[in-house]
Amino acid sequence: MWLVGMSKLYKQRPSEFMGITDDEYTAYCLDQACAHIIAQRENEKEPQFKSEYQSFREMYSQYQQE
Asked: pLDDT tens, 37-51?
């Protein structure tokens, strides 16, 4: 969560703040993840993080719309 706060403070994308300049896809993924966290917090929801998954399918299943 510190990365989101520091990025806002310095008005930089999270990937810029972290110095990710050589891998556009990694930068995009990090920026999207932080955007998701910001959106959750603006909607007064606390983002929940699960650290272990059995497969990518399990990980992505939480994002599927019903």
From this structure: 888 888 887 766 666
Q: How far is CA 22 from CA 17, 33, 35, in A?
A: 13, 18, 21
pTM for the full model?
Answer: 0.64
Range of the domain at 31: 2-61
Distance separating alpha carbons of residues 43 and 27, to the nearest angstrom: 25
Pick the more confident residue, 61 or 49.
Answer: 61
CA 31 – CA 15 distance, rounded (Å): 6
What total of structural domains would you count in the chain?
A: 1
Give 7: exposed, middle or buried? Use CB within 10 Å, 0-12, 13-18, 19+. Answer: buried
